[in-house]
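[Automated response] Your request has been received and processed.

Submitted sequence:
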Amino acid sequence: MQIHLSKPGGQREGPYTLEQIIQDLAANKYRDTDYWAWHEGLTEWVPLYLLPGIADTDSAPAASPVSEPEEESAALSQQVSSGMPAAALEQIFMFTTGDGPSVLQSPTVARMLKEIIGEDPDALREGIPRDVVARCAVAELLKSDGSISEAVWRAMAAHRPAIVQQARDRLYRVCVRTFRIEADVVVAVALFYNKQKL
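Generated structure:
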């Protein structure tokens, strides 16, 4: 089996064999949370740690709580789960290189949100708002230290000014995760957790 790897926002690499990837992981050249994988027969890209053969090596990421600073980036944490209680989630912003409707309807996005949040966001309660900013350069949305850029804050404030101001006043903890849903479509989600419910 020939496996292609890609980092969120990065170029496709490979193909590699499963044995090569397992050897690289064992040699600590990279972690299974660093890449997404695809091979013939898959309908979509999946996190590398979920690939059969990799998942069997018991190297899937463990959930851990979000720590200070208030914003956390997937580039810094290398984990999938936000580690936050789902009941505290009050807003989801999604930024994508693709188009908005397909992101909202994507089964990969639904699966990743469930993995990040720890529960299906649709099953939590009615009305967790989701706003999508489409056709944007996701890789440019985060600062080099992984925090949210001023452009992102402005874009979110255009949709939900009250909650964004409250987040800037440190009433919310913001967790950011970035993932790929297709070879050329990247999604970044910013999840707003109410600190009073943590």
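Summary generated for your ticket: Strands lie at 3-6, 13-16, 36-39, 46-47, 71-72, 89-96, 130-133, 172-182, 185-194. The CA atoms of residues 97 and 135 lie 4 Å apart.
If you did not submit this request, please reply to this message.
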